[in-house]
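lol forgot to send this yesterday, sorry. struct tokens for the thing we talked abt
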């Protein structure tokens, strides 16, 4: 029989409310040959314009604050039944960064919507698939130069097309401008069947 003294000595377990939340994102991961090509392009841009280093990816679900176990459960659940799809670059663009604008096919948009629904993310703006190739604090003129440099470093980048067959869950702290804290938590291979 437990006494108040023995209950006080029992190991303490954390409740859900006590588990620290982190920021998580879901990314579409390019295949290895495309990843290598993109890394080379990104390294070339960073050599001239600076900016943090990060893995090539297309954001499917932007950063959402969750407990670690909840994020992993939602990710696994969201990946079930998703099929690979083709991503095709429309052009090199600028805005919040320098990026490759990906053609918003029904498959890309539906994959994002499906994953967002599992993560409880609602958005009033349409999904804009893109692959960021350079982050940093740049003027509009510097971004324009980086945009031009991207097509010099890889002349056919605007016609790149590849299959997205892997999604990854990353811990992505939006406050970390160095991006050094970004960490892959899990990866899932999409099945064509």
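and heres what i got for the seq, position by position
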């Amino acid at each position: 029989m437990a006494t108040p003294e023995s209950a006080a000595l029992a190991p303490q377990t954390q409740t859900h409310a006590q588990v620290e939340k982190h920021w998580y994102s879901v990314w579409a991961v390019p295949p290895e040959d495309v990843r290598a090509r993109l890394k080379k392009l990104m390294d070339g841009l960073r050599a001239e314009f600076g900016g943090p280093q990060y893995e090539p990816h297309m954001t499917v679900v932007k950063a959402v604050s969750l407990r670690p176990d909840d994020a992993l459960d939602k990710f696994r659940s969201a990946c079930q039944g998703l099929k690979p799809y083709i991503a095709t670059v429309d052009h090199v663009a600028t805005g919040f960064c320098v990026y490759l604008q990906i053609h918003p096919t029904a498959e890309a948009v539906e994959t994002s919507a499906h994953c967002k629904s599992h993560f409880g993310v609602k958005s009033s703006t349409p999904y804009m698939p893109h692959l960021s190739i350079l982050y940093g604090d740049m003027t509009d003129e510097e971004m324009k130069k980086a945009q031009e440099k991207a097509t010099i470093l890889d002349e056919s980048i605007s016609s790149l097309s590849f299959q997205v067959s892997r999604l990854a869950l990353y811990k992505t702290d939006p406050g970390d401008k160095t991006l050094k804290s970004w960490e892959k938590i899990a990866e899932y291979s999409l099945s064509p069947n």
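Helices lie at 4-9, 32-49, 68-79, 106-119, 140-153. anyway ping me if u want another try
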